[in-house]
Write a structure and sequence with these properties.
alpha+beta; OB fold (Dihydrolipoamide Acetyltransferase, E2P); de novo design (two linked rop proteins); 2 domains; five-stranded mixed β-barrel; three-stranded antiparallel sheet; 8 strands; elongated
Length: about 250
Amino acid sequence: MGQQITVTGMVLSAMPIGEYDKRLVILTKERGKLSAFAKGVRRQNSPDAAASQPFIFGTFTLYEGRTSYTVQQVEVQNYFDGLRRDLEMIYHASYFCELADDLTREYNDEKNILLLLYQTLRALMRGVVPAPLIRAIYEIKALAYYGQAMEVFSCVKCGSQEALAVFDSEAGGMLCGECKGAAGAPIPVSDSTLYTLQFILGSSLEKLYSFRVSEQVMAQLKAITAQYCCRYVDKRQKSLDFLEQMDGKA
């Protein structure tokens, strides 16, 4: 027999189902990622339409059936309305949600990725930190929570903490000057970029979006995260095509 549950989370995606319904994918604090049907929210003047959109964060009262969940009530804590007024923000936010969707699972403890996603969307909406840097930080931290943290504090081959010179995704992180010859696709890393990587992986969520970097550091971060995500994320997110198109026009 079904029961009613209450979870706190964020809507990662909302897909139309039938004529009037939606299927929501929600990343929750209590049960990881789950899917729930929102009945009638596509009807004209539905009072629940606004609460059945991506980026909505709040408390969801769900009916748990044998094979599916049904949304009964939503208490929205943050609509993230500001994200919807700018195309670049929409594409970035969609990518962050899509990546979270791909990395998380039902009944897993996904609290860290949920909180990271929430803080990331807040940083994106504030506009103080450039969106490409927000993206790099998010990718690095999300993959760390997923169990694929980069090794940036010592050489992955010999363990040395000195003269770290290049990053190699195949190796899993940094290589020192003596070991860099073993790299499959080495990316040179400056001291500033290395410090930035160490700061991202070593800092709490509250401190993540509190800095800016030079163009050189940003270029190296982009190269590193692109290579690392390509290796450790199983599928390519559809929203990446839009982001790459925007990069090409910049």
